[in-house]
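Re: the 137-residue chain
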Amino acid sequence: MIIALILAVALFLLAIASHLAILGVGHRLLGRRRDTLAKLGVSLLVLSSHFLVAILFAVGFWLGAEWDLGGFDKAPTMDWMDYFYFSLINVTTLGLGDIYPTDHLRVLAGIEALTGFALISCSAQLFWTMMHEGEKA
């Protein structure tokens, strides 16, 4: 359990740091340009940041499975796409339930969902800023 918590906290910190850095680039871009192309570019930055977070946690789930911290039920074998799919569904807090973690990997899944909720909130704030600044122009 301790190893799963350490892995989860490390991934949380890495995800937050990378997301904030990418959003910072988006804010700076919006500070220089406020046209539609810049807003689309910032939107792609946000999307890529969320993909990066899902990839980080997918690697974490793979490592956890390799370290015998748990596995996944309803999936006889997991390949890279299954780990990414589960991570993407989990980080968005959608949680379909067709694949779910077992044992100590459940801790990692819970931390990922909390991380996703926090990061989606940060992204929503950036989108609100883009829309609000568009009204000022």
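The first strand starts at residue 72 and ends at 73.
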